[in-house]
């Protein structure tokens, strides 16, 4: 069936293009051993985020939604020697697994996990400037996260929001689900705010049918 085909094609690309990655494999194993939900980005999406951060030559990355640190590690690997990534996680159990994974990946000097509800920890970042922001936490709060992301962005910053398609539900204007509504409000804000120029892309793969929004903060 179609879902199996998407999985097979994802597997084809990841085994061809980034086959040997014991560190990333170990992260996924540790997450599964700790019973974390398997809602991290897929290997191809992780590598894609990594390449986007490299394209941008990002030096200061902010991530909202850490889980076990899988996407954090992909992103932090794109950083230069003096680069830094701050990642925000609500669940202390997730944060603990992430910190262990980050240490095992040798990235503990480059990544800081801030534990708490992101809307409580984001104010502590006031005054800092990020050039790459990845939003991947509780979707009902997406519009708030976008407002913070814009506030904490350098001119030219890249802002990415994950899971904006939700198997197509995003296009249903009457949808009642809080996550779908959060994503719709996020898209409306992207459309209205003159500071950012954006688009969204649908994706299929091992994580199903979804997609991401990408915006660039104007100079
Ligand atoms: N970015 C991760 C990856 O790809 O490896 C996946 C993140 S997962 C989809 C979403 C995470 O956001 C979960 O670990 C969840 O506990 C966290 N989260 C939920 N509500 C939050 C909040 N209010 N503040 C910060 N994190 C939150």
Descriptive key words:
219 residues; alpha/beta; Rossmann fold; seven-stranded mixed β-sheet; 8 helices; 41% helix; 24% strand; binds S-adenosylmethionine
Give an account of the 3D structure.
The protein is of the alpha/beta class. It has one domain: 3-Layer(aba) Sandwich (Rossmann fold), CATH 3.40.50.150. The protein has helices at residues 2-17, 22-33, 43-55, 70-76, 92-104, 118-121, 142-151, 178-192, and strands spanning 60-64, 84-89, 111-115, 130-135, 153-162, 196-205, 208-217. Strands 3-2-1-4-5-7-6 form a 7-stranded mixed beta sheet, sandwiched between helices. Bound molecules: S-adenosylmethionine (SAM). Residues 39-41, 65-67, 70-71, 88-91, 94, 117-118, 136-138, 141 line the site of S-adenosylmethionine (SAM). S-adenosylmethionine is lined by residues 39-41, 65-67, 70-71, 88-91, 94, 117-118, 136-138, 141. Pfam families: Methyltransf_3.
Q: What order do the helices and strands come in, and which of them pair?
A:
Elements (H helix, E strand, L loop, with lengths): L1 H16 L4 H12 L9 H13 L4 E5 L5 H7 L7 E6 L2 H13 L6 E5 L2 H4 L8 E6 L6 H10 L1 E10 L15 H15 L3 E10 L2 E10 L2
Parallel strand pairs: 1-2, 1-4, 2-3, 4-5
Antiparallel strand pairs: 5-7, 6-7
Helix pairs in contact: 2-5, 3-4, 7-8
The protein binds S-adenosylmethionine.
Brief account:
Keywords: Methyltransferase, S-adenosyl-L-methionine, Transferase. With 219 residues, this protein is an alpha/beta fold.
* CATH topology assignment: Rossmann fold
Bound molecules: S-adenosylmethionine
Helicity, as a percent range: 40-55%
Chain-averaged pLDDT:
97
Largest β-sheet summary: 7 strands, mixed
Total strand segments: 7
Query: What is the radius of gyration computed over CA atoms, rounded to a whole number of angstroms?
Result: 17 Å
CATH class: Alpha Beta
Q: Please tell me the CATH architecture by its name.
A: 3-Layer(aba) Sandwich
Q: List the secondary-structure elements in sequence, H or E.
A: HHHEHEHEHEHEHEE
Stretches where pLDDT is under 50 for at least 5 consecutive residues are none
Q: How do the strands of the widest beta sheet line up side by side?
A: 3-2-1-4-5-7-6
The amount of beta strand, in percent, is 15-25%
Please report the distance between the alpha carbons of the first and last residues. Answer: 46 Å
InterPro entries: Cation-dep_OMT (IPR050362), SAM-dependent_MTases_sf (IPR029063), SAM_O-MeTrfase (IPR002935)
Pfam families: Methyltransf_3 (PF01596)
Keywords: Methyltransferase, S-adenosyl-L-methionine, Transferase
Organism: Metabacillus flavus
């Amino acid at each position: 069936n179609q879902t199996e085909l998407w999985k097979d094609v994802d597997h084809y690309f990841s085994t061809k293009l980034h086959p040997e990655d014991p560190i990333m494999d170990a992260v996924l194993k540790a997450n599964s051993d700790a019973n974390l939900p398997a809602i991290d980005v897929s290997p191809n999406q992780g590598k894609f985020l990594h390449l986007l951060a490299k394209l941008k030559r990002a030096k200061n990355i902010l991530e909202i939604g850490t889980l076990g640190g899988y996407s954090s590690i992909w992103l932090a690997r794109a950083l230069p020697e003096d680069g830094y990534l701050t990642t925000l996680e609500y669940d202390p159990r997730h944060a603990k697994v992430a910190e262990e994974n980050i240490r095992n990946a040798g990235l503990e000097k480059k990544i800081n996990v801030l534990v708490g509800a992101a809307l409580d920890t984001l104010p502590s970042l006031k005054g800092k400037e990020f050039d790459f922001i990845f939003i991947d936490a509780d979707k009902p709060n997406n519009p708030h996260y976008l407002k913070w992301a814009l506030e904490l962005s350098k001119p030219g910053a890249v802002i990415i929001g994950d899971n904006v398609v939700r198997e197509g539900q995003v296009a249903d204007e009457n949808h009642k689900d809080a996550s779908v509504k959060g994503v719709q409000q996020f898209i409306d804000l992207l459309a209205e705010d003159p500071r950012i120029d954006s688009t969204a892309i649908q994706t299929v793969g091992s994580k199903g049918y979804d997609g991401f929004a990408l915006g660039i903060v104007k100079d």
